[in-house]
Amino acid sequence: MKFLKNFVIICLLILLNINIAFSANIKKELRFYQQIKLPYSSKQLKKYYYWDEFGELNILSHEKMPLRFSMQDYSVKIKTFSDDFHGSSGAFYFPLIYFNFNKFLYTGVMYMSFGANDVHIFTFRLNSYDSNGKLIDAIVLDERYSEEGEVLLWNDFTIKANGIIYVNQQKKLLIDAGLSDFKKGEIKSKKSQYQMTKTGLFKKLK
User: pLDDT at position 17, please?
Assistant: First the structure.
């Protein structure tokens, strides 16, 4: 009985330590991020990806330390602009930037996700955290990929100093598919706006 009681206490202590580790995890990891001042845009991400000889998009990490997604990273409902499909992320991401806005911490991370037929998708995600390091909200600002060499899809975004995020979701036809409403070389775009609110959420404006 005493052994069982001690075992239960040890398990509870382990769980407590795990919870503490997760709640403070982002603060410990900030040393891997670069602190920035807004504005920040997709133009500054160009140095982190490249197209290989097979037409696949790949991450150029510049020797950045890959970090593992936590349970709260997987549990949050991620906002996205993609109308077609959303790739599934792997286990790791690369930390890029962080900044503070309205007393909340924001981090920007990149990772390679995978869509239909294992299409490589370069992904940039923005996260918000409260003062205890708890993840509040997340939004994917860039999903950049080529769909089987037929269509090129990407987002151009800007995070302004006033907390408004402008996103221009774009699609370019790479082949002559015989579609009357979409010609080869034509680019279609869809613009959206989000606001980083006083509660740490990403609120859609239009």
Answer: 39
Residue found under tokens 């991020």 = 33
Tokens of 71: 């349970």
According to the 3-state scheme, what is the secondary structure of the chain? CHHHHHHHHHHHHHHHHHHHHHHHHHHHHHHHCEECCCCEEHHHHHHHEEECCCCCEEECCCCCCCEECCHHHHHCCCECCCCCCCCEECCEEEEEEEEEECCEEEEEEEEEEECHHHCEEEEEEEEEECCCCCEEEEEEEEEEEEECCCEEEEEEEEECCCCEEEEEEEEEECCCCCECCECCCCEEEEEEEEEECCCCCEEECC
Longest dimension (CA), the chain: 77
For 22-26, 43-47, 105-109, 175-179, which range has the lowest pLDDT when averaged over its residues? Answer: 22-26
Q: What is the pTM of this model?
A: 0.82
- pLDDT, one tens digit per residue, over 66-93 is 999 888 888 888 888 765 555 567 789 9
